[in-house]
Design a protein that fits this description.
2-enoyl-CoA Hydratase, Chain A, domain 1; 4-stranded mixed sheet; EC 4.2.1.-; Carnitinyl-CoA dehydratase; lyase activity; 10 strands; alpha/beta; lyase; Enoyl-CoA_hydra_C; 255 residues
Length: 255
């Protein structure tokens, strides 16, 4: 992973992935991209880790997007699909992810926040899809239509104008706001709420949201029933009601 991306595997089942190029506004240069690919792969492959928080070093930028100097040097046209690490697109991440946005999330930074399942933002954060201002493209923004209203999405993409964290919360892009000094505490609290729940139910819940987003009602219901089979038949499905009846905390096994 190197120094460009830091990985903290905590004892509580939470992984904290930190983009560590504050001097470059945490832009998505080659080292950061490679580090993020490795970090997501490590998180997905470690059964002890159940939720990941993606954040960045410093208090100015979560990620300012792609490295425009690198793009100019490469004379980049259409980016290869595997160029940028995007969970849910070119990376499989079945476990929940949270973006903790500590500063500007522009272009590729918006993409990273959008690709996470949940988003906690500093009140000082700003979001923008700025590609139109530099002649680049934002095809990755297509799934945004399932998060925010169409006319708001249209204005954001066509103008490239930043929106505040409060506005991002208002339109549904952000789940929770926190003062800058409380950002990680808020993100960790949200992650801890998820870790408290039965692992297989959490995985099936995430899959169900994806199915409901991509399918019509009848097909989504059918697919969701199948997605929940493993959780229903698990030992945890018996442990939960038993723990409730015995007035104790459940001991999840993830099986």
């Amino acid at each position: 992973m190197g120094d460009a991306v830091l990985f903290d595997a905590r004892d509580d089942g939470i992984a904290v992935i930190t983009i560590n190029r504050p001097d470059a506004r945490n832009a998505l240069g080659r080292e950061v991209r490679e580090g993020l690919f490795a970090a997501w792969d490590r998180f997905e492959g470690d059964p002890a880790l159940r939720v990941a928080i993606l954040t960045a070093a410093g208090d100015k930028a979560f990620c300012a997007g792609g490295d425009l100097k690198e793009m100019a040097d490469l004379r980049l046209t259409v980016p290869p699909r595997g160029m940028f690490p995007v969970p849910g697109d070119n990376i499989e991440v079945t476990k929940p992810t949270i973006a903790a946005v500590n500063g500007v999330a522009f272009a590729g930074g918006w993409l990273l926040a959008q690709a996470c399942d949940l988003c906690v933002a500093s009140t000082a954060a700003r979001f923008a899809i700025t590609e139109a201002k530099v002649g680049r493209g934002s095809p990755w923004a297509a799934p945004l239509i399932h998060m925010i209203p169409q006319r708001i999405m249209m204005e954001i993409i066509l103008t490239g104008r930043p929106i505040t964290a409060a506005r991002a919360y208002e339109i549904g892009l952000v789940n929770r706001l926190a003062e800058p000094e409380d950002l990680m505490a808020e993100a960790l609290a949200l992650a801890a709420e998820i870790v408290e729940n039965a692992p297989l139910s959490v995985l099936a819940g995430k899959e169900t949201v994806g199915l409901a987003t991509e399918m019509g009602r009848t097909a989504a219901l059918r697919a969701a029933r199948h997605a929940w089979e493993r959780a229903y038949r698990s030992a945890d499905a018996q442990e939960g009601p038993r723990a409730f009846a015995e007035k104790r905390k459940p001991q999840w096994r993830g099986e």
